[in-house]
Amino acid sequence: MSGRKIISFMSQNAIYIVLVVLVIAIAIWDTRFLSLTVFRDILLQSSTRTIIALGAAFVLITGGVDLSTGRVVGLTAVLSASMLQTTDYAQRFYPNLGEMPLWLPIVIAIVAGLLVGLLNGFVISKFSIPPFIATLGTMVMVYGINSIYFDLPPNNSQPIGGLRPDFTNLGTGYVFGMPILVLIAIIVSILVWIVFNKTVLGKNMYAIGGNREAAIVSGINVGKNLLFIYAIAGALYGLGGVLEAARTGGATNNYGNMYELDAIAACVVGGVSTSGGIGTVPGVLAGVLIFGVINYGLTFIGVNPYWQLIIKGLIIVTAVAFDIRKYLAKR
Q1: Is residue 81 situated within a structural domain?
Q2: What is the domain range of residue 145?
Q3: Read out DSSP for 42-108?
Q4: 107 vs 329, higher pLDDT
């Protein structure tokens, strides 16, 4: 292999090379890192992030960005948790609320996320407001709404706990030896792959991100498609928030803080172009897994959390730099 081919290979796969080196280094430091238990824990921690990142991928592929992601996760976690506490818990959010069917609060929370996504899509498509500004405003509003709801008496901004076992089982239970949370993430990933690759919406999404003007000329209703895309993204954030509450056994209004950056970072590292028009489900899954290994692995060997942030930041900047370089080379 020539030097030029080697350089090209390394530039195309730099993040994966870093991942392999990092795994080897952590394993050398502590061989227990290569155990099945560690692998299971990484998958569990990455499952909700996968669903959230897939939602972010919808938006990024259109050439947009969604900064409201984390706050939608927090809102839906609080909504679902507030309605799914055990009836004998002393500090219930709704003291007089009877036991609701498990599916109802989950659906309510997911619909709330979908409505926020619809709002984003409407503002962006109707008023041509840049996605960065539109979703920045939504992010602030959603956090305010969630904080007001969280502060309602008798809760008064106390962490929501005492969640029902059938709800927390979604985040900690197993089916046929497989974590339920991981199974849900796999099912969602398959459904998103189908949307990306086998539907008109998926094709339109790539067309809008690749060349918006050309998409309009070809007869694609950009506004209508953006509404659907942002709504789906919001619903996925909602599902992620619900499962995050189930996984951790509680919720506060600060849940989901900075999740939007983690989701965007995982997408970019996984090959979703910041310029739009490029991105795959396997790539997003790889990006989430990379950060899952980094977070868990560095904590496993006792690396200072502040150093972890520096390492993650360097990886993000490197990934974006390579993405921009490839975009400019194509032009």
Answers
A1: yes
A2: 50-257
A3: HHHHHHHHHHHHHHHHHHHHTT---TTHHHHHHHHHHHHHHTSB-TT-TT-SSTT--PPPTHHHHHH
A4: 107
pLDDT tens, residue by residue, 98-139: 999 999 999 999 999 999 999 999 999 999 999 999 999 999
Query: Shortest CA distance to 294 belongs to which of 316, 272, 323?
Result: 316
Phi-psi region of 30 (alpha: psi -120 to 50; beta: other; left: phi over 0): beta
- Predicted model pTM: 0.92
3-state secondary structure (DSSP) of residue 261: helix
Q: How far, in Å, CA of 5 to CA of 8, rounded? A: 5
Taking 70 as the threshold, does the pLDDT of residue 276 lie above it? yes
Please enumerate in sequence order all residues whose Cβ is within 8 A of that of 54, keeping only pairs 6 or more positions apart, or say none. Answer: 188, 189, 192, 236, 281, 284
- Please give the radius of gyration of the chain, using alpha carbons only, rounded to the nearest integer: 21
CA proximity to 44, closest of 162, 161, 170: 170
Is the distance from CB of 271 to CB of 278 less than 8 angstroms?
yes
Q: How far apart are CA 245 and CA 83, in angstroms?
A: 12
Q: Is residue 282 part of a domain?
A: no
User: Residue 311 domain-assigned?
Assistant: no
Contacts of 40 (CB under 8 A, 6+ apart): 179
